[in-house]
């Protein structure tokens, strides 16, 4: 029998709680839901609120079927809010919003990675943050990503822009920058310019083009996730990897000190202590007073 749980007055059917989703660690679906409810929710929800969500679903764990979806799945409760996100192939398309703990837990019960746009639902295509996805091409690793992140941090600071890091939860690193609302195409163009500058400054380390043949041993500075249609793994989301890795905020001291891949790998079980120690390291992204104009914008 599927247990019914009440979350802030909403009744949720939470299924298959004993199912092992991460065989490498024995992590069950119940433990995944506990992570979101007890550890991540308070810090995570401000980064999800008002941002239409895309889901990478992996209901049988990372080794099973995985599929990406933007549309609200069949059976979405009527109390889960959605927002219009028109697409060329579906002008009436809508996407889920996770505005509160019940909607977060409903989505987590589907077993998903949470991915968000860089804009909010009341201003589609007008970004309030910029993202750089630093993706290492083997044998490069997150260590090389950290070196690139430090260069980008200093370059952004020269334009009076603050930047904040988080692990991707996979191989690389994400840098996020709070902005005054700016058209996504302008943010993309600016981010591309900085990616090209990084390649010029660090030619042995950086590539700004996605071409696979160019990427071995280098860090691909992916600026394209600033495009209005693109989404990026949300802060604190679990990833569909061998272990329950988290897209975890990190300090600049940790980035500077990174000497091996494992230095910046954080699992669900690590996050309660990190949040207790640091709070939400990405809180400035949700503070309008921290936003700055895009140079030349």
UniProtKB/TrEMBL annotation:
Taxonomic superkingdom: Bacteria
Lineage: Bacteria, Bacillati, Actinomycetota, Actinomycetes, Kitasatosporales
InterPro entries linked: LigD_pol_dom (IPR014145), MtLigD_Pol-like (IPR033649), NHEJ_LigD (IPR052171)
EC number: 6.5.1.1
Gene behind this protein: ligD
Domain DNA ligase D polymerase: 28-281
Name of the protein in question: Non-homologous end-joining DNA ligase
Alphabetized UniProt keyword annotations: Ligase
Pfam families given in the database record: LigD_Prim-Pol
PANTHER family: BIFUNCTIONAL NON-HOMOLOGOUS END JOINING PROTEIN LIGD
A single MF term (Gene Ontology): DNA ligase (ATP) activity
């Amino acid at each position: 029998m599927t247990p019914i749980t009440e979350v802030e007055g909403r009744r949720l059917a939470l299924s298959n709680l004993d199912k092992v989703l991460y065989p490498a660690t024995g992590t069950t679906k119940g433990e995944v839901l506990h992570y979101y409810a007890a550890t991540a929710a308070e810090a995570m929800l401000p980064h999800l609120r008002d941002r239409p969500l895309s889901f990478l679903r992996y209901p049988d764990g990372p080794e099973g079927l995985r599929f990406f979806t933007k549309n609200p799945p069949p059976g979405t409760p009527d109390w889960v809010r959605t927002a219009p996100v028109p697409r060329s192939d579906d002008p009436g398309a809508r996407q889920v919003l996770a505005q509160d703990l019940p909607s977060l837990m409903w989505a987590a019960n589907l077993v998903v990675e949470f991915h968000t746009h860089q804009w909010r639902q009341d201003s589609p295509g007008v970004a309030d943050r910029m993202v750089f996805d630093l993706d290492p091409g083997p044998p490069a690793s997150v260590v090389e990503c950290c070196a690139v992140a430090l260069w980008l941090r200093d370059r952004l600071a020269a334009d009076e822009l603050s930047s904040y890091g988080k692990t991707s939860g996979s191989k690389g690193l994400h840098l996020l920058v709070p902005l005054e609302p700016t058209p996504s195409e302008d943010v993309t163009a600016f981010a591309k310019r900085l990616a090209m500058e990084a390649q010029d400054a660090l030619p042995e380390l950086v590539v700004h083009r996605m071409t696979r043949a160019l990427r071995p041993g280098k860090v691909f500075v992916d600026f394209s996730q600033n495009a209005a249609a693109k989404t990026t793994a949300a802060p604190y989301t679990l990833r569909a990897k061998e272990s329950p890795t988290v897209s975890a905020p990190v300090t600049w001291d940790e980035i500077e000190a990174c000497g091996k891949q494992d230095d910046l790998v954080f699992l669900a079980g690590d996050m309660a202590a990190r949040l207790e120690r640091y709070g939400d390291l990405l809180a400035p992204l949700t503070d309008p007073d921290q936003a700055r104009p895009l140079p030349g914008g």
